[in-house]
Every structure is written in C-alpha cells, then in structure tokens.
C-alpha cells in the first residue's frame, strides 16, 4: 500500500481534524455505492479506508512515522529481526566478543549486528529473512486492531441502519448502526482485525461512525428540535400544518394567537434509546414569517390597526 499521507493528500504535519476531513471527502468521492461497477474506484476506497485507519490511531501513526511499521500496520522485518538478534544475545550490548580474524567491514565497525549497514543488508538479505521467520516460531500474539470509518445520515444514525464495509483484507461485512448512534461513536467488531500469531486470536475492527448533519433537525440528547415557519394568518387564526419527522410527515395544530417561539411537543417522535427503552420527543418551534413580497393591503391595514394601540414588545428589555 502507498504512503497513507499521500493516499489522503496530506503532509506529515497534518492534524487529527485534517485527517478526518480528508477522509470524509475522499470516502464520499470513492464510495462503491456511488460508483457501481467500478473495481478501480472500489480499490481506491479500500486504500483510503486503510490509510485513515492507520493515521487516525495516534499510536499507530507515531509508529509509522518512526518507521517501526509499514503502511499496512505490519511490523517492519528489519526491526523485528534486530530485536530477535539482540534477544538471542548476539546483538550490541549482549557481551559477545568478535573474533580476531573477523576483518574490517566496509563503512566502519558496526559491532555484533551483521546486518547493520547496507552492504551486509544486501549480502545477507535472505539469511536475515530466514532468521526473522525462525525467531517468531512458537510465539503467540493476538492480532492488531484495525480502524475504519463509515458515514451515515442523521436519520439513519437516529433510527438505526446497516452499512457495508470493505475490510483491509478484502472481506466485505455489514455493520449494524444501532438506533440513537451519536457522531464519532466507535463500534468494536470482534475478530475482524489482523490475524494473530501462533494460533492466537485475530484483532478487532474499530469502526468510527461519522454522522452527517441535517438541514432541518438538531439533536439534544434523545430529543429533536425543529424550527417550523408559519404564516401571519396561521399564527393569528390558528391552523393545522404538516411538519417533517424522522419517519415521515405529521399534522400539528397551531393554536390561535401563536407567536414566534411558541413550541409544540410531539411525544415519542424523537430518537430511540435502546438502553433506557424510551424514545425522545420532537420539539417544533414556530417562527412567524411575513410575506416575502410587500403587500400594500396588509401594510395599510397595519397602519390603521396600530393607531392608538399600546403594543410595546420590548418593554421587558427596559428600553
């Protein structure tokens, strides 16, 4: 896999927010659902997902920046070999001595590590790989976790949904988004990470859910809030109007004499909370709107009506 910074179009100085924004932009651009029948786009989507999984994890990002792991999150062979060599009592600091006939090495003395310079890396590459493989024999270690992200709409996050996720292994699974899921919630999928060593279990897939904002609704705990425009006549005379909810339109009654700020409560039309086994409410705040175009008749009526009437709406402000 390519350098994850290049995949996301970032530099190594990128912040966590930079990484998140780049992922959201590219994930939407290359999402397989938006590009059906395009295996090349699907491959790019997998690459973007894997890059975000590595860079969004502070520990893995730091290890990648230090060169300890590669772009797939796998330990670099040269580093694992050095540790195995040193642990076996052969590396620097192990107390070993060099034979008098060892001779000089190109590039200067490198101690007891026979693979410390590029010259011997080239000559002993095959030996080094065999040694590295042997050093891990009998070792049991759980596989690493892998991070992913999925985008969901506001409604899907509130009501629950499924999202298809392509893992870095190429496997495709369906992820259940529970009702009431909040933005940046992390779901743990057991055993869907990297394979373990020596028969140990696989790691987990950690899926961060990114919830899109809604043009009309805002969320407060398990409740939803909505501003609903009403006409002047609806506010004065009262009326039945339709308003949107998470699962379709419903009719509500605007009481006569309603003002901007008057709030209607629709019980049980909010967000399900499976833990508390309750559903929140929908709060509809009325906003009285004048006609978009000036109305001469309305203007003349208000001029006549307002004469001699005490109608000071700012009295409570003390001005």
UniProtKB/TrEMBL annotation:
CDD domains reported in the protein's UniProt record: DnaJ (cd06257), DnaJ_C (cd10747)
Gly residues composition-biased segments: 90-109
Matching InterPro entries: DnaJ_C (IPR002939), DnaJ_domain (IPR001623), HSP40/DnaJ_pept-bd (IPR008971), J_dom_sf (IPR036869)
Record's keyword terms, sorted: Metal-binding, Repeat, Zinc, Zinc-finger
Cellular component aspect of the GO annotation: cytoplasm
Basic and acidic residues compositional bias, start-end: 57-81
Region annotation (Disordered) ranges: 51-112
An MF annotation (GO) of this entry: zinc ion binding
Gene Ontology biological process terms from the UniProt entry: protein refolding
Limits of the J domain: 3-68
Pfam family, one: DnaJ
Name this protein carries in UniProt: Molecular chaperone DnaJ
């Amino acid at each position: 896999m390519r350098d994850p910074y290049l995949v996301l179009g970032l530099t190594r100085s990128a912040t966590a927010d930079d990484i998140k924004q780049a992922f959201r932009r590219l994930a939407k651009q290359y999402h397989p659902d938006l590009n059906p029948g395009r295996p090349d786009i699907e491959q790019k989507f997998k690459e973007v997902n894997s890059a975000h999984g590595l860079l969004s994890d502070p520990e893995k990002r730091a290890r990648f920046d230090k060169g300890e792991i590669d772009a797939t999150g796998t330990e670099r062979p040269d580093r694992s070999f050095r540790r195995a060599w040193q642990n076996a009592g052969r590396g620097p600091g192990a107390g070993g001595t060099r034979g008098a006939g060892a001779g000089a090495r190109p590039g200067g003395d490198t101690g007891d590590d026979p693979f410390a310079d590029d010259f011997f890396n080239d000559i002993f590459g095959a030996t080094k790989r065999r040694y590295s493989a042997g050093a891990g024999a009998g070792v049991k270690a759980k596989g690493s976790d892998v991070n992913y992200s999925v985008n969901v709409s506001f409604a899907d996050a509130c009501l629950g949904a499924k999202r298809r996720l392509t893992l870095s292994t190429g496997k495709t699974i369906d992820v259940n988004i529970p009702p009431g899921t909040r933005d940046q919630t992390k779901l743990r999928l057991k055993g869907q990470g990297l394979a373990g060593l020596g028969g140990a279990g696989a790691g987990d897939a950690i899926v961060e859910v990114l919830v899109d904002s809604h043009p009309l609704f805002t969320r407060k705990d398990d409740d939803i809030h909505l501003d609903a425009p009403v006409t002047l006549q609806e506010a004065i005379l009262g009326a039945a109007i339709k308003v949107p909810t998470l699962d379709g339109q419903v009719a509500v009654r605007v009481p006569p004499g309603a003002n901007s700020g008057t709030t209607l409560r629709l019980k049980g039309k909010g967000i399900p909370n499976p833990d508390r086994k309750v559903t929140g409410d929908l709060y509809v705040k009325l906003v009285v709107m004048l006609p978009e175009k000036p109305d001469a008749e309305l203007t003349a009526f208000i001029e006549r009506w307002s004469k001699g009437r005490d109608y000071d709406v700012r009295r409570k402000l003390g001005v």
